[in-house]
């Protein structure tokens, strides 16, 4: 039997899951549901990345032990997976014994083979990224919390595997997908590849897996995390299980973690003499406006809220349909509602209510005897057979949104067929012919529901149960003539866009300026209180002041054009308002992480400040 092993990244437990995490996991769920349908022996792995600086920091901020923090966070992910109807086969946590043992084994094996050496290293270290960075990277402004560090560490001879990796990528064109990501990695590998620092002294970070050959160190979180993919299928413990599923068919990842997966991981495996995964597939980012949805930017959508409001299937549908795999996509409530109303309510839901109502009205709520053998009916049947293989081809090539669109196009063609054949009119003159049309339409709808079931496992079940066809296959002809229809609720009640809009405040009269923004757009802007800790003039620019501000637990640098209005010493201690999720900017060579708010008219400018006993820095402003 063919096997299909698919993994998601293991997510950091530094905060609760957001829509980006939900996306990759739903994608893996949809793909594995399709593969299970073809009879493959599927293994679907997801889990949590629980070690490292980020998690230690998150636990420290909350004043709890890292392991307690992880134990508290893990159920939040599990709860979300349950709500999203994720059918994973395993859920790995890197703090589990089974994983620690495998990481230590690999470390020891690689050490014994001579691929790990000790060296003193001095360089710039980015705390937020948990790695040494180059001078050039430091100047790029993409890294925060940079420190100069000199210390003894252990290094993995990654450079030794540069050429074998390039050869592997060239010999296996599907190893890194999509194509443009493969080219990106090959471009990266044109420059000499350095060795990888794989240790962290416990004096600096102790939340990790101890090096088996030096108890003063823990291993680098990525060296630990990537190994989860082999731990879960039984590496070094269950040889048969391991050989059955490994190498994985795909590691699904977001493009943010391409290098770790397509450079660190394969070279680690080469050194440990373990076969490489068959494929690494990097999808794009969900954006909110121009920026990536990310916890640190504070612009993430909470998947639980959406599910509660609209149901899980529409959310799964939207995420799968809207993002073309490999490209970025914009998450907006407008596009969510549009997709819901047009694809789900109008096309899919409408077809079900039309067909089932007509069967009730004219055929006593029973499935008619014969299918339509008119030319129009034959086209629907032929396309109903073709759509199955088209969808499968798309899925095998990781084109999920195209697979969905192909099914929706088929549904639209069935709606057109209904309009052309008008069985409600036909029923009055030729009842037999009307029955045939309705049979064909119902069968087409059944096939479509089976095809959409991996994306929307719940609502498609309603369709199948309506026709008494739960568990039926993808072969044309799954309906049983004479069977009675079951009652069903509206599949996708339309979202009334007007009801969502907030009523106007002004005694009945609408005042709508032409620059209105939606509530969502407003919510995308994160405003917080910030306390000014330090302020100084910028030598080269007489309009600018450089401020260090405190936003809750975090410190930030802001550069603001207010030197003409305020003396630096006047600002220290003031509680101001800052846009905290603005893309960082470099102003006169200085990094600025946010923007302060001020009222300005003509030549006057006054900073917006907030006073009050209860006001603390880091409070969100609504
Ligand atoms: O990187 N759009 O964990 P993480 C789409 N622990 N996908 C997104 C997204 C967005 N805006 N934001 C996050 C880590 N994701 C490591 C992985 S694997 C051995 C270790 C998804 O919690 C996407 O899959 O930061 C991305 O790769 C992953 O979440 C990063 O999750």
Describe the structure.
The chain has 622 residues and is an alpha+beta fold. Among the domains are: 166 residues, Isoleucyl-tRNA Synthetase, Domain 1; 89 residues, Nucleic acid-binding proteins (OB fold (Dihydrolipoamide Acetyltransferase, E2P)), CATH 2.40.50. 42% of the residues lie in helices and 21% in strands. The chain has 22 helices and 26 strands. A six-stranded parallel beta sheet has the order 3-2-1-12-13-7, with helices on both faces. Strands 17, 18, 19, 20, 23 and 26 form a six-stranded antiparallel beta sheet that branches. Helix 16 runs antiparallel to helix 18 and helix 17 packs antiparallel against helix 18. It starts with a strand and ends with a strand. The relative contact order is 0.08. It binds ligand ME8. Ligand ME8 binds next to strand 1, helix 1, helix 8 and strand 12. The site of ligand ME8 has 20 residues, from strand 1, helix 1, helix 8 and strand 12.
